[in-house]
Design a protein that fits this description.
There is one protein chain. A five-stranded antiparallel beta sheet has the order 1-5-2-3-4, with no helix packed on it. With 138 residues, it is α+β, with helices and mostly antiparallel strands.
């Protein structure tokens, strides 16, 4: 009688082992398939992001190298949509700081694809800029 019970226990254990093995194998395949789908989508988004990044760099490069056109205002202000200063070059920026449109003139520079203010931690919304004037002669 004990040998029959032992055989039944061994049979149930073997069946349980096979079922668990099949279930884990199936879960692994489903997980791998889902990971593959996510990787495919991420790769597509990465390619789109690289394309947009390259286009942005090209536009910024053109804005820096194109000569000032007739849209530059007679006052000397250069619209940022027309041209940007050299990287890290301190310029005078016509800015709108914060939520309310309170224009101000600040010393700003353009770096890492964004404007920064020399005196403020706020990121200024620069609409126009002009080169710094020469220092006065003594």
């Amino acid at each position: 009688m004990t040998s029959i019970i032992t055989c039944i226990i061994l049979l149930v254990t073997s069946i349980a082992s096979l079922v668990l093995s099949w279930w884990f194998d199936r879960r692994a395949k489903v997980t791998a398939l889902r990971a593959s789908e996510h990787l495919g989508r991420a790769s597509k988004h990465l390619d789109e992001a690289k394309k947009l990044h390259d286009e942005a760099r090209e536009i910024i490069s053109k804005l820096r190298t194109e000569p000032v056109s007739r849209t530059t205002e007679p006052s000397g202000w250069i619209p940022v949509a027309e041209r940007l200063p050299k990287l890290h070059e301190s310029v005078i920026g016509f800015c709108v700081l914060g939520q309310e449109p309170k224009p101000s003139v600040n010393e700003v520079y353009f770096a890492s694809h964004r404007w920064s203010s020399v005196r403020s931690i706020d990121v200024p919304n620069v609409t126009h800029w002009m080169p710094m004037p020469e220092a006065p002669k003594q």
